[in-house]
Amino acid sequence: MKRAVVVVVLGLAGVAWQDRSAPVERGTLRLHYVQKPIGTERYDIVTTPGDGGLQLTADFDFTDRGGRVQLAATLRTAADLTPVHFSAKGKSYRFVNVDSAIDIAGHIATVRADGGEARVTLPAQFYTVDGYAPFAAQMLMLRYWKQHGRPRVLTTVPGLPSNDVIIEARGRDEATIAGRAVALDRFVVDGVVWGRETLWLDERGSLAAAITRAGGLSFEAVREDLESGLAWFVDRGTRDRIADLEEITRRTPAAHAGTYALLGGTIVDAVRDRAIADGVVVIRDGRIADVGPRGAVTIPSGTQAVDVAGKTIVPGLWDMHTHMTQIEWAPVYLGAGVTTVRDMGNEFEFVAALRDAIVAKRAAGPRLLLAGLIDGGGPNAFGVYYAATPDEAKRVVAKYHDAGFQQIKIYSLITPPIVEAICAEAHRLGMTVTGHIPTGMSIEQAVSAGMDHIAHLPIRGEAGSEEVTRTIGFLRDHKTVMDPTQSWNELLGHAAGAPVTAFQPGIAKIPPPLNRLFSNAGTAGVDAATARSRVERGLRIVNALHAAGVPVVAGTDEGIPGHSVHREIELYVEAGLTPLQALQAATIVPARAMKLDAELGTIERGKRADLVVLDANPLDDIRNIRRVRWTVSDGRMYDAAALWKSVRFQP
Ligand SMILES: [Zn+2]
């Protein structure tokens, strides 16, 4: 009812202005998802008669993998660009609903968002945006920021009390796009979404391009006349982000590195089923020089001792299903004790640059193993790497191989003969293949075509049924690795409106933009008991896979950054695995699956020093896996709390 009133008022106002003022500015931005063109944002800005303010109207519209996403937004400002009204309705991404309206009178804002209404007192400087869309609202936010003394922190609504956006001017870029020299001012905006975005304004203050993330992957907007500059913007944005991560790394240095010894901790090495009490781990130049009970280990004289009495040391954790599309993941993962991740599809240029910065130790982050995404062709395809013929399959596999990717990730629209061609070429080059079971193929067909791993547990039916038992036997016989992403299913499948904290306490510690996103996630029309019974069906299959000897590896598909890794491990214990077996699913089992178990996955002499120092023992209670105090990544020991704080999480 309230909504209808707002629409009528704006509609009348719009008609009135159309008569008196032509648009002072209008623009069309081409929208891209992981560089694939998928839609447009069109905006008009007119001057408000009388008071010299502005009114922006924007239509944001794209289609991703067959799903239409539309958002309509209006922003009205005073002459000094201070917002007086903002409304946005629709979706900003496939599963992100937006329905917010803000009216401002003096320092009081009436905010209707997320199904509630609140009156909030605004600080002297503020702006109204609700996520990255429409980009034109962020453009006006930058103009406001420039006109109002460039404040260090700009509060944005909705999202109070503490949605603080940090804007930095990064200088002028000179580029040649479509044969034309353009001068663009580059800005970094941190906090409209979780993490940093890059926006470019031209000399008139018009938005030239923006790079952000949607649904966890990269999302690019480029003004239509600059469309051919997409690759230039991606490259410039990537370099900006890697430089940011290097800066975070400098500001969050390792507490210990080189040669030192962890003394007095309980060691769960993931080899034995019993812990070593009062243990010692000697670390030298990134490797475990020795490990064992205190009396059995010689500590070279002069070795710096780090007292970890009362703590528990476990191998560094793995996340076998991530999309590490922004630098903020790097400190988050280390803060969560995750020292190796497998990326399951990303922007090629960005993820390769991120990996290289971590390998070169210019940036701290988990080891990054890469699976290159390939989809079939057509309008509903995902990403920009396709294979519809065997020759295309060879070319795209070679491109990933040459860039050092370990795996190929098959996506849903690849046809059966092309799955076979991709797998044959990948195997020939020493790579393995993971991914989705393509549309129209069975698990058996996909594995017979050569897939080595499967993502997302695509097994229907009940554990113990004849059909499921046969499928599990087939997977065991083919040594197929499964990453079941049960924490993701739980997060998206939980009853909408039921609190996420009931199963994921980590949500209380994440930055406000992520918190709003996930607090609004969930499945409508499902009660808590039904949602839980769906999770339990999946967990019974996980348990049956594990019991049959199918390697189960912990993966999140992102979820609540860092915290979902812990939840995935907890869910395996709920499934019936012992705490040690669940820990192994996030350490040695993935190391074997990626053929890196000679180097990683357990706490043994000679392996890389990837370790987590916990405040309590996860074998006593698996939830202790959340209590990360220190993370040792390739021999460098980081304070977990400092890592979390470096990207605006609470430790
Ligand atoms: Zn994924």
Task: For the structure shown, list the relevant keywords.
8-stranded mixed beta sheet, binds zinc ion, 16 helices, alpha+beta, 651 residues
Rounded to an integer in angstroms, the radius of gyration calculated over CA atoms is 26 Å
- Overall geometry comes to globular
Return the average pLDDT rounded to an integer.
94
Summing up helix and strand content along with how strands pair, one would put the structural category as alpha+beta
Report strand %: 25-35%
Residue stretches low in confidence (pLDDT < 50, at least 5 long) are 1-20
Compute the number of helices: 16
Intertermini distance: 42 Å
Cross-sheet strand order for the largest sheet: 8-7-6-5-4-3-2-1-15-14-13-12-11-10-9
Small molecules bound: zinc ion
Give the tally of β-strands. Answer: 30
Helix content: 25-40%
